[in-house]
Amino acid sequence: MKKLEDQAEAAIKAQTNAEEKAEAAEAIRKMAESQKREAEEKMVQAEKELQQTLATKEAEIKTLTRRRMPKAWPTSQMPTNNR
């Protein structure tokens, strides 16, 4: 009878241990998902900032190019730097 009780107690401890590990794994999964979402949000923000910077730089380049071009050249016949 004592052996059966010991086996039942060991089974209960094993089940409790398995449940605790499952809860810990679930908490880790939730934290990883949260970190993933946060990283994705930062990436989207960085992409927006990059696009804004590129647009600004393109506008600056166009402005500087127009200022340096002789007035006699139409914009469509602007020389290009083909290296």
Q: How does this model look, in words?
A:
The protein is mostly helical. The chain has a domain at 1-52. Helix content is 81%, strand content 0%. It is built from one helix and no strands. It has one helix at 2-68. The termini are far apart. The model has no long low-confidence stretch (mean pLDDT 89). Residues 74-83 have a biased composition (Polar residues). Residues 18-50 have a biased composition (Basic and acidic residues). Residues 1-83 are annotated as: Disordered.
Quick summary of this structure?
The protein has 83 residues and is mainly alpha-helical.
Overall, the morphology is rod-shaped
Helix content: over 70%
Low-confidence stretches: none
Q: Summarize model confidence as the mean pLDDT.
A: 89
What is the beta-strand fraction?
A: under 5%
Question: How far is the first residue's CA from the last residue's CA?
Answer: 92 Å
- Classification by helices and strands: mainly alpha
Q: Give the tally of β-strands.
A: 0
Largest sheet: none
Rg, Cα atoms, Å: 33 Å
* Total number of helices: 1
> Can you write the helix and strand succession as a string?
H
Helix-strand layout with pairing:
Blueprint: H1 2-68
Keyword list:
single chain, mainly alpha, 1 helix, 83 residues
